[in-house]
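<tokenise_the_fold>
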Amino acid sequence: MILKLATLLASLLLMVVAASGADISGKWTASFDTQVGVQNYTYEFKLNGEKLTGTTKSQFGESEITEGTVKGDEVSFVENLKFQDQTLRITYKGKIAGDEIRFTRQVGDVATEELIAKRVK
């Protein structure tokens, strides 16, 4: 009886941890080729439950992360980049795998790009 209860509690704990998502808090970097050349990004992520906040920084400037969530190994957020006197909405969707996140980002109605962000240790 005690063994069954312990097994049940351990299973419930694993489900809660899996449902809450990976903690991606901290600094991540990525370098990737785009229509406007190679972009070098630094992401500062802050995770509170499933809510993701933080900043993005590239040679084009720094932006606050909005609409961010982490659910399990899935992450998504929006970067509103100021570029040539306009705000460009960039939507990120990614899959977390340890110290890497594989992102697809939609840059307005202009382009879809693939990139891999790596955790800075």
